[in-house]
Amino acid sequence: MAQATKTAPNVGAPRSIGAPLIPPYPLGFTAWLLQRVTALLLVVFLGIHIAALHYFIIGQHITFDRVVERFQSPFFIVVDMGILITAAFHGLNGVRAVLLDLPISPGVQKAAFWLLVVIGVVGVAYGINGLMAFL
Q1: Which residues, 6 or more positions from 134, have their beta carbon under 8 angstroms from its beta carbon?
Q2: Count of alpha carbons within 13 Å of 126, Cβ hemisphere only?
Q3: Helix axis angle, 64-71 relative to 74-101, nearest 10°?
Q4: Is residue 31 part of a domain?
Q5: Quick one: which of 16, 31, 107, 116 has the most CB atoms within 10 Å?
């Protein structure tokens, strides 16, 4: 008797030239990868933020006028926007990952996902609006 054999998919096959990198991968992998990327970006942005605010400006008292002066610099705006956007995504994506581990229905998971998207967009827009008030 001949046995039916299953052929394994082309797991180790190289990608064709010009093939997109992200779309063939599932959404879960993309979210996982972006979680790691945003963690690294947070370390970089927070390192710059701490160094710039605590080590480069020595001996100056912190006053509201000095804070406004710092926020009028495009450098500080970019760093703070970077922190805002990466922290929002990283945090909300972490909440989404926890929700996926809970025994809830896919419909509730989908609704929670969209609620987190709305919270993220509104929160980032509100934060950017606050930062732009200094320019």
Answers
A1: 68, 71, 72, 77
A2: 7
A3: 80
A4: no
A5: 116
Domain count, the chain: 1
Q: What is the mean pLDDT of residues 100-113?
A: 90
Q: Which long-range contacts (CB under 8 A, 24 or more apart) does 39-45 make?
A: 39/90, 41/82, 41/86, 42/83, 42/86, 42/87, 42/90, 45/79, 45/82, 45/83, 45/86
How big is the chain by its Cα radius of gyration, in Å? 22
Query: Is 105 among the domain residues?
Result: yes
> Is the dihedral angle over the CA atoms 103, 36, 132, 64 positive or is it negative?
positive
With respect to residue 19, please indicate whether it lies within any of the assigned structural domains.
no
Kindly report the average pLDDT of the chain as a whole number: 83
Query: What would the two tokens of residue 78 be?
Result: 């970019």
Q: Is residue 13 part of a domain?
A: no
Which residues have C-beta within 8 Å of that of residue 72, sequence separation ≥ 6? 134, 135
pTM for the structure as a whole: 0.73
Is residue 44 scored above 90 in pLDDT?
Answer: yes
Which CATH number does the domain housing residue 65 bear?
1.20.1300
